[in-house]
Amino acid sequence: MVHYSELFLSAGRCEIPSSTAVVPLPEARARPESKRRARLKVGTRGAQRVEQSGQREIAHTPVLLKEVTSFLVSQRDTCIVDVTVGLGGHAEALLQADMTLELLGIDRDEEALSVARERLAPFGKRVRLVHGTFRELPQLLQQAGWEYVDGIFADLGVSSLQLDRGARGMSFRLDAPLDMRMDQHHGMTAAEWLASATEEEMADVFWQLGEERSSRRIARHLVRRRGLKPFETTTDLAHEVASAVGQATHRRQRIHPATRVFQALRIFLNDELGELAALLETAPKLLRPRGHMVVISYHSLEDRLVKRCFRSLDRCGFQLPVRRVVRPSDEEVVENPRARSAKLRVLERGDVR
Ligand SMILES: C[S@@+](CC[C@H](N)C(=O)[O-])C[C@H]1O[C@@H](n2cnc3c(N)ncnc32)[C@H](O)[C@@H]1O
To answer: How far, in Å, from the CA of 21 to the mean position of ligand 1?
Structure first.
């Protein structure tokens, strides 16, 4: 069932544009004093988390911000839907760039939505935030009373909050329960899936979604190990994947041997490619004439789907204002290493619907 938690935010003034804003994380206030002292900066897709004097905060630097704004902000009353509103970084910049723009922000992660709510509160009724997924986009637009929109924006992948919050279990850098769901109220956790999948299913997921060459060896090792003790934590899984891959292969790799397995599990458990395919199927039809759909992807499986879809629509009532993929500048990558794999593509609806 769709959980539609719509929030009309209270009226307020827009502030001076700033691409890096610091917003408080809601649950941080309850943390014990002893854990509050450390000041840490964690690189997350353009985000820094700063822990300081009792307030844990996120400073989020959205990727390809100028490019996104230039494609989505036009000089007319504009309705934009940001289907991956996350921590509200891109949304904030769009709202600041055009004082008449209205934005519907969607995310499947309740925790991210509550951060976005606080961050975007100064924009009042120009912003509505709803919980939902790409698949639900047509219904969510209808419920918002919008038939067509001028812009659709998707910044795929995971947010800094999901990656760097230990409890989400998406990264092996932090010891945490093996969850990995973007929406913590729906679907199977990684621990549950690893306890029930067959060896073949595991190998297929690791190979198809992680392009992991040792997929079969890893799957065999994990099935043998779970017979002795179920997988419960990220570090336990990462350790077992590393043992399956072995020392020799481990040394030849530039990345941690569990990187691809973790990526594959996350994409699989959140059905990221199925969700993206559903978005690409419905979203272009929801654009007004001259409206733009902008998608930023972070790995080749996603970008391939976007590229194919946009090319197939070219000259069929749509056009590609930029034929090639847009990449971040060297300066942006130096400032924000997580931008390095970003690829932005744009689709424009033709004049006649
Ligand atoms: C890279 S983050 C977006 C960050 C955002 N642009 C910002 O500047 O703060 C991606 C967000 O998309 C959300 N997301 C991913 N897949 C989704 C889906 N199928 N439906 C709804 N939200 C999704 C994630 O929960 C995450 O919060």
So the answer is: 18
